[in-house]
Amino acid sequence: MNAFRLEGRVALVTGATSGIGAACAEVLAEAGAAVVVAGRSVQRGQAVVEGIARAGGRARFQPLDVSDDASCRAAVQAATTAFGRLDIVVNSAGIGAGGAVLDTTDEDWLAVLETNLTGVFRMCRAAVPPLRAGGGAIVNIGSDWSLFAGAGAAAYCTSKGGVLLLTKAMAQDHAREGIRVNCVCPAEIDTPMLATTADRHGVDHAEALARYAEALPVGRVGTPREVAYAVLYLASDEARFITGIALPVDGGSTSR
Ligand SMILES: NC(=O)c1ccc[n+]([C@@H]2O[C@H](COP(=O)([O-])OP(=O)(O)OC[C@H]3O[C@@H](n4cnc5c(N)ncnc54)[C@H](O)[C@@H]3O)[C@@H](O)[C@H]2O)c1
Fold first, then answer.
1. Collapsed DSSP state (helix, strand, coil) of residue 126
2. Could you give the C-alpha distances from 187 to 48, 102, 145, 209, in angstroms and in order?
3. What is the per-residue burial (b if ≥16 Cβ within 10 Å, else e) of 122-160?
4. pLDDT tens over the chain, length 256 residues
5. Does ligand 1 have an atom closer than 6 angstroms to the CB of 111?
6. CB atoms < 10 A from the CB of 240, how many?
7. CATH 3.40.50.720 fits 10-186+223-246, yes or no
8. Which of 32, 39, 129, 253 has the greatest CB tally within 10 Å of its CB?
9. Is the dihedral of CA 66, 38, 63, 127 positive or negative?
10. CA 36 to CA 14: how far, in whole Å?
């Protein structure tokens, strides 16, 4: 009865202007949470907010660059100012990157770590004080490449492996404060990031989707909402005994 409901809760989602982050914002709002849609694009962010409002939910846009500590702190402050509290943080902001170590410049390496790992660290550091007030949940979007490495993506795999260990370290440090920290690990999901990856490899989007689908046990790529439902579960009270886990949402990818 009333499973996975979030009435009275406030959620902040990073990278919420597209892909998995946008789906998380929508699904958490559908479950009754007030949502801060945080990201870099005002236009895309407003569109997500308007979609949530049309569906009867509550949301507001907050500009956010996770590579800027002041911006992370401002996003957390915006949530507590607008809605009076903060209960849930979903860290979905991220960038894709290809290249084995020999093909990776210092600049590329640092840019990927900065957004995908340090950005999560910064958001968590800003969010812990308000989350302590009533207990809460952080859900980090890792990757199946948090759990095993793929070829030709050394910096990206390193960043996502780091997100999982940061998740586990924080689960240890904050469990007694009522803050749960978990990591959702998607395989290929049909989002703008997947399209950018296909472009980087000079492969047509439809062809890339077909290749990824063929490589997954279920024979198709995932949808952003399929990831968002796992996030909803981990953010909800029904997951109150779960912290520090990696939850694959991967069409069987990690079963091999
Ligand atoms: N799509 C996949 O196949 C897949 C698989 C595994 C993991 N992931 C992870 O899922 C998360 C969401 O990616 P997606 O697939 O929805 O792609 P996406 O490109 O649609 O979403 C990523 C979002 O992060 C935002 N972002 C990037 N840098 C930022 C910064 N400095 N500050 C704030 N926002 C920033 C982008 O603007 C974008 O809105 C990422 O962490 C990604 O690594 C995606």
1. helix
2. 24, 25, 8, 12
3. bbbebbbebbeeeebbbbbbbbbbbbeeeeebbbbbbbb
4. 569 999 999 999 999 999 999 999 999 999 999 999 999 999 999 999 999 999 999 999 999 999 999 999 999 999 999 999 999 999 999 999 999 999 999 999 999 999 999 999 999 999 999 999 999 999 999 999 999 999 999 999 999 999 999 999 999 999 999 999 999 999 999 999 999 999 988 999 999 999 999 999 999 999 999 999 999 999 999 999 999 999 999 999 999 9
5. no
6. 11
7. yes
8. 39
9. negative
10. 9
For ligand 1, what atom is nearest to the CA of residue 222?
3
CA of 217 to the centre of ligand 1 (A): 24
Question: Phi first, then psi: what are they for 15, rounded to 5°?
Answer: 60, 30
Closest approach atom of ligand 1 to CA 145: 6
Q: How far is the CA of 220 from the centre of ligand 1 (A)?
A: 20
Ligand 1 site, residue 251, Cβ cutoff 6 A: no
B/e letters for 187-203, b = 16+ CB within 10 Å, e = fewer, are bbbbbebbeebbeeeee
Q: What's the pTM?
A: 0.98
Tokens of 4: 């996975």
Question: What are the boundaries of each domain within the chain?
Answer: 10-186+223-246, 191-221
DSSP 8-state secondary structure symbol assigned to residue 145: G
Rounded distance, CA 90 to CA 231, Å? 8
20 lines ligand 1 (CB under 6 A): yes
